[in-house]
Amino acid sequence: MAQKIREAEGILRTVLKPGETITPADGEKNILITSALPYCNNVPHLGNVIGSTLSADVFARYSRTRNLRTLYICGTDEYGTATETQALKEGLTPRQLCDKYNATHVETYKWFELGFDYFGRTSTPLHTEICQEIYLNLAKHDYLERLEKEQTFCENCSKFLADRFVEGTCPHCGSDDARGDQCDVCGRTLDAVDLINPRCLVDKKHKVVTRTTAHMYLKLDALQSSTEEWIKQSWKAGKWSPNAVINGDGELIDARLKGGLRPTPVTRDLSWGVPVPHVDGKAHEGMESKVLYVWFDACIGYPSITANYTPEWKKWWFDQKNVNLYQFMGKDNVYFHTIYFPSVQIGDGRPWTKLHHLSTTEYLNYEGGKFSKSHNRGVFGPAAKETGIPPSVWRYYLISTRPETADSMFSWADLIAANNNVLLNNFGNFVNRALKFVVSQYDSVIPDGGDAPGPLSPNDAHDAEFIADINNLLKDYIDAMDHVKLRLGLQTVMLISARGNLYLQSSGLNKALMAESPQRCAQVIARALNLIYVLTALIHPFMPATETQLLAQLNAPPRAVPTVLAHDLLAGHTVGTPEHLFKRIEEKMADVFRDKFGGNAPKEDALAQAADATHVVPGMSKRKAAAAKKAAAADKAAAASDAPKSAEVLAWEQKVAAQGVVVRELKGKPKTPEVEAEIAAAVEELKKLKTELAELAKSSE
Predict the structure, then answer these.
(1) 247 touches 253 (CB < 8 A)
(2) What is d(CA 168, CA 417) in angstroms, rounded to the nearest whole number?
(3) Residues 411-416: contacts with CB within 8 Å, 24+ apart?
(4) For residue 427, which of 492, 497, 490 has the smallest C-alpha distance?
């Protein structure tokens, strides 16, 4: 099929050749991306996916659509107490356990179409080498000290016990199942020596006593002033997302910083980990059989995994001038990436590439509660594919509910509505309508609408408003994505497709237009197809498989994100075969999925039948249960109508959704008179849009 695409620098996306290694270039903006290393003793759930790996993948893909040199690194965090204890429970060696769960993580992320440039693991020789080198540099610069403390000791095992190898009675609430680091009943943080009647996890009959032992500590107190200075500089330059370390005014609010950092241990009494290295040819006294603490070595996993990807890893990790480091994680990992690891890098003394932009998320909860592996509640690992819902739909929904400023809730009903109302009725409808028209009326060949190759004029006689709207939305999209506002970026993509729907409708694209005004008809369809070509690049970060389908239907190569709408697919270009991008999901399937993933024993035929009963969350009050039934009845009533929504309604729905994001973003900022005024204005605009939407919906009935 003939391809006719405008030839100009920057239109097409730079695609790596097979086997090509990505290295940064001097004088260019190079993007290094990491997502928090998932711990290798369990399977990830949807909250883990959206909290770090999927969010980082979206930004990495976006950076590539801007033709920036981009490297996305991740891998499993494999050392530490949790691995040893889980291996003990499963009757495996730590290595066997890590091999098992590493494979599960790889399978899960592959299904979700996460495009790591390299996904590695921390249990490698290079990881040991880099960790030990950093430890020795800290020792050389006098940032390590040896301290003695009381610790539990198992006389039968003849070894000191790390915190999670000890259980006993909580001294605060009396629970008999408290761990050496925390009591899950009262939530208190514990020290293993405070447990009453401590027991060894290896054998509860073993005798556990308290003895004095030595560990090496990192002098965070000596590094605090340098770390604080760096935090303030990086926060401002990289425009960090709101977090618990520094607020929107640049004030340090972390309690540990305000109270003064204290020395923190960097060694543990374990066998599974990086051995503590010798200093000047000999071990620190008492460190002969110890390993490095997992939180000391975990963040070093980022450079060590990069080292396993390329021997030129230092070009990425020792070039603060040319490399911008973006790190994605849940809110519970912020301390280690903004205080602990940067302190280690500063103490190491070498010119490390440090954090540029921090992107954190709050928690994603599940259907009125929390994800729970022990109670089989929620979607874990690769189980998402059991629903039959494609990865693109999962990716869209998870990003659209990304908990950027507050906790959010996963809902099966919302996921189905997102598929049916947004992806199918808005995005899919626009693409399918335009492509089918050119196939049926122009034999699959883009007609000559009179536009010259290149950007469309904002002063166009027919479509000045349309072109201006698209160009403004493209600016909004790039601004949102550059600032890692992924949810807003996705909303903007859907606003663009809704504007495309409105354009087709207002232009009157049909056979009558073709007969009465063939030149105008050719112009409209050519411009619509070029907008679809733009949408392929915009949708790629969020739904890469959907982009692949679109490119096949357009018969076009991957393109870069443009700054303005242009005539890039030229007259004479032959498109492919139109196919539906999305399929409708029956609303009643929400109950089926709730039943399957709600914590009860799954039914073998759960996906083969649809339950009619309204789902009530276990433990829900009568009042809330009644409200849930009322809401379900309303959903069913709304679903009873098969009438498609008009393009105007779809466009206004997207405007309401986008304005809602603006309001939530403002409410997440520190409260000042100026911000309060912005919030009030944004809320008024939201109310206005909702009123206009209601009027539009009523008039289209």
Answers:
(1) yes
(2) 48
(3) 411/367, 412/367, 412/589, 412/590, 412/593, 412/594, 413/587, 413/590, 413/635, 415/389, 416/585, 416/586, 416/587, 416/589, 416/590
(4) 497
- Say if residues 137 and 347 touch (Cβ distance below 8 Å): yes
Measured CA to CA in angstroms, residue 334 lies from 58, 220, 309, 391, 634 at distances of 20, 16, 26, 29, 41
For residue 105, what pLDDT is reported? 95
Inter-axis angle of helices 544-554 and 391-400, to 10 degrees?
Answer: 120
Say how far apart CA 475 and CA 538 lie, in whole Å. 12
Residues 6+ apart with CB under 8 A from 312: 21, 23
Place of tokens 């009179």: 450
State pLDDT tens for residues 609-627: 333 333 333 333 444 444 4
Q: Which of 323, 316, 274 is nearest to 126 (CA)?
A: 274
Give every CB contact of residue 496 below 8 A, 6+ residues apart in sequence. 470, 473, 474, 477, 531, 534, 535, 538
Judge contact between 147 and 263, C-beta under 8 A. yes
The token duo for 692 is 């206009």
Q: Which residues of the chain fall below pLDDT 50?
A: 601-644
Look at residue 647 in the predicted model and tell me its pLDDT. 54
Distance CA 425, CA 325 (A): 38
Q: Which pLDDT belongs to residue 527?
A: 98
Confidence at residue 266, expressed as pLDDT on a 0 to 100 scale: 96
Give CA torsion, residues 72, 77, 78, 79, to 10 deg. 130
Output the pTM of the full model. Answer: 0.85
Domain boundary assignment for the chain = 425-574, 647-699
pLDDT at site 616: 33
The secondary structure element, H or E, covering residue 39 is: none
Give me Rg for the CA atoms of the chain.
Answer: 28
3-state secondary structure 399-417: HHCCCCCCCEEECHHHHHH
Beta carbons of 105 and 40 less than 8 angstroms apart:
yes
Fold of 425-574: Isoleucyl-tRNA Synthetase; Domain 1 (1.10.730)
